[in-house]
Amino acid sequence: MSLIKAIFFDQDGVIIDTEKDGHRVAFNDAFKEFGYDFEWSVQKYQELLQISGGKERMRHYFQEKNLFSNMSPDELTEHIKALHKRKTEIFISLIESGKLPLRSGIKRFMKEGVDAGLILSVCTTANERSANAIARGMLGDIQFQFVLAGDVVGKKKPDPEIYLLALEKTQLKPEECVVIEDSRNGVLAAKQAGLNIVATTNIYTENEDLSDADIVVTRLGDAGEKGELKNAKKEIDFDGILHVEQLLKYYAS
């Protein structure tokens, strides 16, 4: 009998490859609408992804480039909020337009989790509106027990606060839960919470240190787009498609 009773999903980079062609594009469009001539390149955004949270990334970048130095701290905070609000509206429109498809295997994997009687939830530091647009919209036929997003916690990943809150809400032990993450910050957060971890890499995280994850694959995989096993702490029979049943057996011991 498997010990696993719940699966917690990160959003950006796990459910959808949102970063490169989603969030980055939305940030740049918001900057342009506000009349600014700077934009974030693919490489620059990769650097900024080491900072969790969109508002936090903007603040870091503005300070790094000495932008808006004429604003008081309170004025800068309000300006960042306004920029982020518009960026979120643009991002949600990208989601609703269908321009950002789900990652290979994610919906199949979620359905398998539901069929296995597991608790499913989304735990992300992404904006609550964008999280619900995905979880309640694109994945509306998947039953999530809860969606934790945005400012529901005071500290962003790699702090484990969001996963500790998920454990509190489910009343489960860490060893009874698996997290699906994609980044080093997410893996570190899950590790500090004592959770089991599966990492799925993407263009921004494929070279990050994800060694704390129990299993690392390039994607969960489907018949038409299989994944590659990058690392596993013990043997797993992976043929390019990771199934929930495999995870239940993997963690049974």
Notes on the protein architecture:
This protein is α/β, with parallel strands linked by helices and 253 residues long. It is 42% helix and 11% strand. The protein is globular and about 60 Å long. The termini are close together.
Q: What is the CATH architecture descriptor of the largest domain?
A: 3-Layer(aba) Sandwich
Q: What is the count of helical runs?
A: 9
| H/E series | EHHHHHEHEHEHEEEH
Structural class: alpha/beta
Main sheet makeup? 7 strands, mixed
Q: Please name the fourth-level CATH homologous superfamily of the largest domain.
A: HAD superfamily/HAD-like
Overall tally of structural domains: 2
The rough form would be described as globular
DSSP summary, beta strand count: 7
Q: Distance N terminus to C terminus?
A: 9 Å
Q: Summarize model confidence as the mean pLDDT.
A: 94
Instruction: Tell me the strand percentage band.
Output: 5-15%
CATH domain class of the largest domain: Alpha Beta
Q: Rg to the nearest angstrom?
A: 18 Å
CATH topology of the largest domain: Rossmann fold
Which percent range fits the helix content?
40-55%
Ranges where pLDDT stays below 50 over 5 or more residues in a row are none
